[in-house]
Design brief:
Elements lengths: L3 E3 L5 E4 L4 E7 L5 E7 L9 E3 L7 E11 L2 E10 L13 E6 H12 L6 E3 L9 E6 L4 H10 L4 E7 L4 E7 L15 E3 L5 E9 L6 E5 L9 E5 L8 E5 L12 H17 L4 E8 L15 E6 L4 E15 L2 E14 L9
Parallel strand pairs: 9-12, 13-19, 15-17
Antiparallel strand pairs: 1-2, 1-5, 3-4, 3-20, 4-7, 5-6, 6-7, 8-10, 11-12, 14-18, 15-16, 18-21, 19-20, 20-21
Amino acid sequence: MQLLALDAEFQPVAYLPYLNLQWQREYYSPGKFSVQLAAEDYDPRMAYLYTPDRPEMGIIHKPELTDTAQGRFVQLTGFFLEHLLNDKVVYPTWYATGAMDAAVLRMISTYKGDTPKLEVESAAAPLAEQASWQVTGEALCTAACTKLKTVQMALRCRYDYEQDKIFCSAWKGVDRTQNQKENNWVVFSDGFKNLEKVTASADWSGAKNYAIVAGAGEESEREVQIVDQSAGGYSRQLWVEAKDLRFNEKKQTLEEYQASLRQRGTEKLLEHQPIQNVEVDVTAGTFRYLRDFDLGDKVDVAVRELGLAMEARIVSVREVFKSNGHQVTLTLGEKKLTTLQKARMIF
């Protein structure tokens, strides 16, 4: 992967002859990177890392010099461009209603301030359902990512080198599971011999599926809303303190305020989902990374030996580039686990 270092004014400094590159792409939060190069190849003017091969652009936050028996090296680490938005805070309070993706982009337009070169793309055809919510005092990127995650969408800030602009948008990965017919299927399984290894774990100890959200007011006068995700089954209840969400009759209706409380409950329940981590290393096999699947896509995964079948979104892609090759590791989230006997999949 080609890397071009830019200075603080987005002017080119040098192409990086790196020795080791780790490019950690994330769907629901800003990704990060780490790159090692020989000390003589580092220039203190370097501020950003641009690549035409990925939609992300790195911000160099930390250069670190090490002196070893093998030589002197500089390690550059940092986050991707979305992290710039965390330099701004949502204040005064932002009251939102409407399609989630369109409302989030309007919020970013309002609070982006002097963020360099940033242009917020409008959601001409909003993809997300209607919602009402409010934010006070949160970092802008964190607030945007939290809201978009509730509708399985993500935030992207893409640098256009030719136009010298950063385009901010909300987006959603492609459904490539066997439950749809519009896109090509993508199945990772040991039967297809396109899994290098699988690491899976589950932890239900902190799981909650029923939120009691208490808003403004005192004792019996408090506005309380319920978010029930138990589907009529056993409820694992969570108390959500939401006094910071206040009813402003000049900015919202009572129904919109109540909806903002339910939105807070939905966000808190996302923090208490069952911990089901699955990581897979993808070999060069039936499906090719970036051609057949990408970050954010929903795919099918099956491991016969574990009796495991899963429909999941690719929430993280970790790429490691070294002189001897390129390794890709996928992290899959929002998993729906079943036994192979119940799963209607082709392996």
